[in-house]
Amino acid sequence: MKKILYPVLFSAAVLLASCTEQQPDTRWSADKANDWAADKGWIVGCDYVPSTAINQIEMWQAESYDPETIDRELGYAESLGFNTVRIFFSNLVYTDDPQGFKDRFSGFLEMCDNHGIRALPTFWTNGGKCIDPKLGKQPDAIKGDHNSQWVMTPGADYVNDPSKWDELEIMVKDIISTYKDDDRILMWCLYNEPENHRRGVTNSVPLMEATFRWARECHPSQPLTAPLWREVGVPGTSLPEVTFALENSDVISFHCYSSGAVLEKFIKSLLPYGRPMVCTEYMRRPTSTFEEAMPIFRKYNVGAINFGLTAGKCNFHYPWNKTDKDGKSIPWTEEPDVWFHDIFYADGTPWNPEEVEFIRKMTGVREQ
């Protein structure tokens, strides 16, 4: 692991100055956002973590970055007709080695481009069971435990303490200014699950505000967004974060793991905003399925990004775990008969060939 403090601090000073030479951009008009969407066509894809990575750290740090697996699995996505993969960054990996992180990210974008896919990077997320992450070798997967080592980024200690945000500002401005005109990037997801106040987060709005400001100071050509975590008004939603996301996102994004009827109702509730929409997480069998959801997304021309591609270390194919009285996950003891997330085994064999055939029919890809 590298610590190149003086060059990083010098580069950061130059970077911060260059990003603030002009007035920050304002939110895109609805017309501009809709023109952007018309140019992109139907956005369809998946949230992606390599099957060999247990979390964002293992995906991006030098000693575990796995381009061979990533390239092969992006081929699986391409075979489905997917044109987008949503990915998650790690502030720890970036801060430890900014240039190395960007080199690996550039390699990832090149692989995406070779497969006709754009990336949808995500900076922060409140979701995750690992609340005290460290660089280096990551914990092993826990058998039967869904997403056992996913990392909160940057974590509650950062979210709740603005005095720690300098390094976050450097990361956002460096990455966005570097790739602000890169057509291989679909858009920037600045904050995933901001409404999720579990595991110590008290209020996400201040960091949301700061991150949107930092991003707009870099004048990206791609739109900015932050997704609504759940249908507005259901238990667990937080109106301050919802309001900020709806008032500041260029493109509205949201998650929906509910039935088709709930999904369609959710979409209809967002139509009055007059902006393009992308669902950046859906599909948890048997409640939310491709067969029920994809026709609804097509009907309203809403982007469809399901959670998961290839079953691996993260155990996304297991259902969300029940918890004991102390809130600790109770691992499942048997492989699920019906996969929760994911589409392929690691070798590219579909979990359900008929489902894969349906996805290809929806995306217009001929049977393989």
Radius of gyration equals 19 Å
Total count of helical runs of at least 4 residues: 13
> In angstroms, what separates the terminal alpha carbons?
43 Å
Q: Which structural class should the secondary elements be placed in?
A: alpha/beta
In CATH, the topology is named TIM Barrel
How many E strands? 8
| Contiguous runs where pLDDT drops below 50 for at least 5 residues | none
Helix percentage range: 25-40%
Succession of helices and strands: HHEHHEHHEHHEHEHEHEHEH
Overall 3D form: globular
Brief description of this entry?
The protein is built from 13 helices and 8 strands.
Spell out the key features of this protein.
alpha/beta, 8-stranded parallel sheet, globular
List the topology elements:
Blueprint: H1 5-19, H2 30-40, E1 44-47, H3 56-60, H4 67-79, E2 84-88, H5 91-96, H6 98-114, E3 118-125, H7 156-159, H8 166-179, E4 188-192, H9 205-217, E5 224-225, H10 239-248, E6 252-255, H11 260-270, E7 277-281, H12 290-300, E8 303-307, H13 353-363
Parallel strand pairs: 1-2, 1-8, 2-3, 3-4, 4-5, 6-7, 7-8
Helix pairs in contact: 1-8, 4-6, 8-9, 9-10, 11-12, 12-13
